[in-house]
Inverse folding.
């Protein structure tokens, strides 16, 4: 039986993702928040919102910490209490979790949760260095590992154990760029042919340029309320009916299994149980495709297919729009872009659009149940949420 | 021996200076702690002892880095992997003295040590690395 609503999303907003020259994080956040406020005319933001949780990964990008009050200052929400959440690439999924804690505890009936990151003004080498901070420093970074390098080791292990191929990984890129070509807010709105993806330059073998997500600027947010209040703000609320989060070792080298991201898997199990649904009930999913191999691993960890069959799942077209579980309809981190702190709530934004039938050309017909899967770093943080329309 | 040294990352690298890989071992439950940690995450005991990690092991997974952060750009392309040593401990490290296309999962590797670091900035850690046990 389908679980009961835990909290309701009554509005959502997202800035355009991409290279947003001359705009800083707080200004991008204004774009996301204004959309959410505009969608929800019955909301009086400064009066009604009792707490804000905002994800951001790194101060290094903008020489700016203290994200919570900074963002609220720019969106007119002072003096509301503000919190920054940090879980690397999973930062704003943990903001959603904090929103759940706040609302379910009764301490706040209405909360704004979101995320932001400004990255593209930095040189690639600097971005590489800052992102690596999400991974172990004294052993992994110290020995020359990068973020792509760590996921490349997951890919090598997956290829060795299950025979997954570079072509299957490239197919994830082809699919997500196809989906992204239909998303007017995506960073890269164009198709990428398989040959182009496969022949792109090597970043960290076996991962090539088109196996990697984009370095982007962006912000996103949701307005959460307790379900009893949802109808006051919208006729089409989207409910979070299941949610889970787990942690794993910061270093990949401390794990026995390199072919699965356990925190994401455990978070998924918790969310499915809470929601009372099975993987086969999911119509749309936004999974953490920071690298193409990560999407293949996500299919397996979330039970979309059996362990080792992720390569086949993409090859058979099961994860494209029209397939069994339309995955990363937004274009994913791969094509929509990956402003790390903004990604978790941007995934929820896409599911919100799908479940309210506002996803335009990429709309999945009759989508009723959605899922988001957001991992931080090399899966040291894993968050899964399950959503349902009324 | 040396059980008075704290079970920290700094101690691990002080041992690397002496050309040794050392881990902690919990006296209460027997768990091997690599890297050393001041508290056994299995049974919460802090009754620990140092134990030398064997120098030989096999490669469990690897990558060849082409795009590196600034401090490693001079070495690209280079191989890095995770090695399972003979007692089951795992450590990441560079794989050197090898032709890159000869690197493969399962290959036998042996740890070796760089000459001491000369950098003046934190951290002052020396580096260990891996090389083929049977040279090409
Ligand atoms: Zn113990």
């Amino acid at each position: 039986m389908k679980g009961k609503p835990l909290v309701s999303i009554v509005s959502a907003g997202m800035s355009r993702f991409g290279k947003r020259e001359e705009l800083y994080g707080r200004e991008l956040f204004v774009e996301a928040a204004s959309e959410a406020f505009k969608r929800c005319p019955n909301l009086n933001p400064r009066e009604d919102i009792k707490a804000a949780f905002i994800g951001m990964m790194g101060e290094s990008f903008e020489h700016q910490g203290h994200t919570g009050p900074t963002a609220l200052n720019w969106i007119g929400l002072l003096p509301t209490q503000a919190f920054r959440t940090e879980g690397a690439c999973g930062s704003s999924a943990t903001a959603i979790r904090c929103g759940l804690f706040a609302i379910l505890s009764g301490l706040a009936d209405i909360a704004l949760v979101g995320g932001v990151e400004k990255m593209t003004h930095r040189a690639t080498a600097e971005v590489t260095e800052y992102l690596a901070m999400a991974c172990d420093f004294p052993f992994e970074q110290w020995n020359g590992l990068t973020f792509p390098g760590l996921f490349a080791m997951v890919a090598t292990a997956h290829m060795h154990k299950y025979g997954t191929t570079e072509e299957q990984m490239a197919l994830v890129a082809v699919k997500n760029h196809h989906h992204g070509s239909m998303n007017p807010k995506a960073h890269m709105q164009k198709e990428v042919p398989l040959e182009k993806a496969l022949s792109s330059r090597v970043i960290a073998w076996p991962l090539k340029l088109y196996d990697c997500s984009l370095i982007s600027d962006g912000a996103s947010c949701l307005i959460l309320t307790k379900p009893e209040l949802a109808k006051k703000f919208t006729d089409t609320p989207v409910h979070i009916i299941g949610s889970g989060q787990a942690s794993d070792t910061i270093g990949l080298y401390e794990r026995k299994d390199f072919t699965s991201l356990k925190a994401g898997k455990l978070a998924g199990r918790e969310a499915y149980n809470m929601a009372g649904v099975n993987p086969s009930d999911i119509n749309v999913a936004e999974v953490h495709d920071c690298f193409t191999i990560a999407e293949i691993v996500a299919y397996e960890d979330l039970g979309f297919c059996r362990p080792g069959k992720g390569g086949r799942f993409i090859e058979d077209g099961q994860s494209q729009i029209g397939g069994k579980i339309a995955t990363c309809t937004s274009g994913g981190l791969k094509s929509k872009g990956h402003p790390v702190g903004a990604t978790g709530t941007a995934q929820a934004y896409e599911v919100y659009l799908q479940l309210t039938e506002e996803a335009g050309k990429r709309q999945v017909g009759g989508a009723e149940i959605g899922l988001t899967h957001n991992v931080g770093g090399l899966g040291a943080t894993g968050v899964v949420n399950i959503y349902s329309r009324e | 021996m040396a059980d008075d040294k704290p079970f920290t990352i700094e101690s691990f690298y002080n041992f690397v200076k002496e050309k040794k890989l050392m881990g902690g071992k919990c006296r209460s439950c027997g768990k091997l702690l690599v890297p050393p940690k001041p508290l056994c995450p299995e049974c919460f005991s802090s009754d620990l002892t140092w134990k030398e990690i064997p120098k030989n092991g096999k490669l469990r997974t690897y990558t060849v880095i082409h795009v590196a952060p600034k401090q490693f750009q001079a070495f690209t392309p280079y191989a890095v992997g995770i090695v399972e040593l003979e007692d089951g401990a795992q450590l990441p490290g560079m794989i050197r003295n090898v032709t890159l296309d000869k690197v493969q999962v399962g290959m036998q590797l042996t740890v070796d040590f760089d000459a001491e670091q000369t950098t003046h900035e934190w951290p002052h850690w020396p580096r260990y690395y891996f090389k083929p046990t049977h040279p090409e």
Observations:
- The two ends of chain A are 15 Å apart (CA to CA).
